[in-house]
Amino acid sequence: MCLGVGKKTIRQVENLKHMTKICKKHFDQVTTKPFIHLTISFLKMKPSYRMYFSLFTIFAFAIFFGFVQVVEAADDRTKLEAELINPSIGKDDGKAKFEQRVDRITLSVEIEDQKSDSAFEIKVDGISLGTFTTDDSGFADFNLDSRDGNTIPTVTSGSMIEVIDSNGNVTLSGKMIGTETTQDGVPLTPSTEFEPVSTTNVIVPFGAKDKDISKFYVSSTISVSLFETITWTNEDDTEHTVTSRTSGIFNSGLFGTSQSFSHQFTIDGTYKYFCQLHPWMTGSIAVQNKEKTNASDTSETILSPLK
After folding, report:
1. Is the CB of residue 78 less than 8 Å from the CB of residue 99?
2. How far is CA 145 from CA 100, 123, 134, in A?
3. Beta carbons of 263 and 241 less than 8 angstroms apart
4. Can you tell me the distance from the alpha carbon of 185 to that of 134, in angstroms, rounded to the nearest whole number?
């Protein structure tokens, strides 16, 4: 019985070897024969024909790969993105994305952590694009696609995206940055991460709590660029606050000696502030957007000093 099993196994091995040889033979014929025939035909050509054939082959490959590169470059002509910041707390609560390709233009906006079932308006450089409403979790998305017949305004690096609530207040805003190219795929602006934020320091000097002091903040009146951050440092021997006179824009709360408070300004305009403990301590900040010529002051709702 063992002898019979051994013979059967030997026959299976021999059959497997035979099938392997057949497969290898067919594989060699399929992969090598066309190449061999082409090589022989090429060598049989006259030298002048071989030269023309070689030049034609090189020229054809150059045209093909050049065409592919141009199409790929044109297909990704413009890609821009923006982080949408809540100006009250300086938190990133949304994002916007713009893409322009050969066959389409798309714009998408997403927001989160907003009041549920609330309507918001989208603006690009002051142009209204439409409204959308948050769901039960405070999330909403807004999408435009030229293939669906949507009209999308010109968006470039530096364009301002604004999300405005039903009361007309700017809830979120951000500036588009990214890569723009021409039809030939030549970059107009480099592809970068979001622009670094510069910081301006303001000192609350020793003795600022006294009404007779000449300077309550150093400096009390300053000008900064859009998206710049200001940091106030308390060098006095008592607590202070840095509170915007426009309700809800920024409020440090009490911060003591050697402590600091920072706020990033994402909307241009003039911001006046004071100390709620010492209301005679006042300051002013002018936030300038170099890409806009009509910058207006923010409206003021005077807050009462702390008692």
Report:
1. yes
2. 10, 16, 20
3. no
4. 38
Domain range for 183 = 78-189
Q: Are 94 and 109 in contact (CB under 8 A)?
A: yes
Q: What is the CATH number of the domain that holds 229?
A: 2.60.40.420
139-175 pLDDT, tens digit per residue, is: 999 999 988 888 888 888 888 898 988 888 888 888 8
Instruction: Provide the pairing of β-strand 119-124 with 91-100.
Output: unpaired
Q: Whole-model pTM above 0.85?
A: no
Tell me the pLDDT tens digit for each residue of 190-218.
433 334 446 789 999 998 888 887 788 98
Q: Which of 56, 75, 94 is the last residue of a domain?
A: 75
CATH number, domain of 93, equals 2.60.40.200
Mean pLDDT for all residues in the chain: 76
Rounded CA-CA distance 224/231 in Å is 12
